[in-house]
Amino acid sequence: MLDRSRRVRRVRVSASGRRRVIAMGAVMAAALAVGGALPSSATRVDGSGDAVRKGLDRLVHKGRYPAALASTVGRDGRVHHFTAGVADLRTGAKVPVDGQVRAGSNTKAFTATVVLQLAGEGKVALDAPIERYLPGLVRGEGIDGRRITVRQLLQHTSGLPDYTDFIADPTGKARHTYVRPRALLDTALAHKAVFAPGTSWAYSNTNYVLAGLLIEKVTGRPLAEQLTRRVIDRIGLRHTYFPGVGDEGIREAHPQGYFAAKPGRPLENITELDPSWGWAAGQVVSTPSDLNRFFTALLDGELLEPAQLAQMRTTVKVPESAGIGPGVRYGLGVTSAPLSCGGRSWGHGGDIPGYATRTGVTDDGRAVTVAVTADGPPTEQGPADVLALLDTALCT
User: Fold this and answer.
1) Residue 37: pLDDT over 80
2) Which end of the chain is more exposed for a tag (fewer CB within 10 A), N or C?
3) Does residue 384 carry a pLDDT above 90?
């Protein structure tokens, strides 16, 4: 479900049907095959931004994404929106400005925010074992909830196996199947630990399923309600929501989402799917500007008290072997990545079949979200080019 890119991990579905849901794709040929057409350049909606416009154009024509969208916020607070490509390869419809997309593993930052709010309220202790809140639930080969802390869940140092490696392929027949959170957890716990808690780092969506179950246990309320009340409504994210049970579509104006079994293969429209397998790790739907607003508000302290925000921003090194980029560090539900122009950006990123999003905000007020409408990608180079554009937009 979700993400692997900065590749901050993404929902990644491989040809074998195994996927990792965060860090994070041949459209021109496909468009011709279905009678559509690609525009010759990106559409600049307002303001300047030649670098962003050219970057989106590249993603469409060289990366072969059907559509690419971006929203930017400059140091002066001015917001600009950009689009390129087509919203629908069959009809050639225009891409909606700031359209809704599945945000994938950006959901983890929402979930972590609520856990940290509960910590600030004295209801959760970050260094307490998950056993305290979910007694007897986390057990398996090399797995013991008495030795895994809440902090380790949020920073991916728990050693828990990733259930997305073992569930039915969400791009195939299982695409319209509802999956309960406990079933996701049970799938993970049927496999042995990756490493002892706190001894290494490995991205695992299982961590955030447990974080979602923790939220429900502590509050006595559904996860969707808590994310909505404590985050989405609190900062006025008007176009962001957590899909309900059975909600397979995308509610507002949106480009279609596509999936290639591997780079170079034909694109399949995969817009409608049951996102329940992403749950607390990757189920949110949002827009580029709403994601900018969320991460900006989060880092500005609008959602967390200073002590909890400091905990969120305390990062651990991500091993180079994780393949999510040099210099990337992981906090509690957020990533920190170096910029080519100096300094670092904060965000997360997300991949889920049909959509990939990359987010970044800086301490001086810049914010950028880039979204593309194919995951798996049409070309091998496409995901790297999305990240390069994010860096360019933040540094220009």
Assistant:
1) no
2) C
3) yes
Q: Count the alpha carbons within 13 Å of 14 in the hemisphere toward its beta carbon.
A: 9
Whether the CB-CB separation of 103 and 74 falls below 8 Å is answered with no
**Residue in this structure with the two tokens 């539900």, named with its chain if needed:** 333
3-state secondary structure of 243: coil
Residue the block writes with tokens 């904060």: 346
pLDDT in tens, 205-254: 999 999 999 999 999 999 999 999 999 999 999 999 999 999 999 999 99
**Residue whose entry in the numeric block shows the structure tokens 């989405």:** 232
Task: Look at the chain and count its residues.
Answer: 396
Query: What is each CA distance from 107 to 135, 164, 180, 231, 363, in whole angstroms?
Result: 25, 16, 17, 11, 21
Give Dmax over CA atoms of the chain in angstroms.
58
Q: Which of 105, 204, 289, 345 is catalytic?
A: 105
| Letter string b/e over residues 132-154, b meaning 16 or more CB atoms within 10 A of that residue's CB | ebbeebbebeebebebbbbbbbb
CA distance 360 to 184: 29
**pLDDT attached to residue 321:** 85
For 257, how many CA atoms within 13 A lie in the half-sphere containing its CB?
A: 27
